[in-house]
Specification:
113 residues, mainly beta, globular
Length: 113
């Protein structure tokens, strides 16, 4: 299985961050896989943001739940992240991850005007 994040590297404050993760070598609907978004901000540890499972169920970390949405497109075998009302504190490297691996290579997203 391979994953690769894609999306804009620069987002303005108050806008919505949108990333997509196409998956190759395996189906996102395979039981019992789960697909997560994880980020790492400068100088901070890894933060799990949320996941979508093989059945399309979603789970979010409480601190980000009000701003986060994870969805999927089974026809394209990909899943996506939307984070609304971003601030500079959302600047981070964002990773898409299959439950027990692998990870995508990560994509830098900077929030700045």
């Amino acid at each position: 299985v391979q994953l690769q994040e894609s999306g804009p590297g620069l987002v303005k404050p108050s806008q919505t961050l949108s990333l997509t993760c196409p998956v190759s070598g395996g189906s996102i609907t395979t039981s019992y896989y789960a697909w997560s978004w994880i980020r790492q901000s400068p100088g901070k540890g890894l933060e799990w943001m949320g996941l979508i499972d093989y059945g399309g169920n979603t789970y979010y970390t409480p601190s980000l739940k009000s701003r986060t949405s994870i969805s999927r497109d089974t026809s394209k075998n990909q899943f996506s992240l939307q984070l609304t009302s971003v601030t500079p504190e959302d600047t981070a490297v964002y990773y898409c991850v299959k439950d027990d691996g692998p990870w995508g290579q990560g994509t830098q997203v900077t929030v700045s005007s």
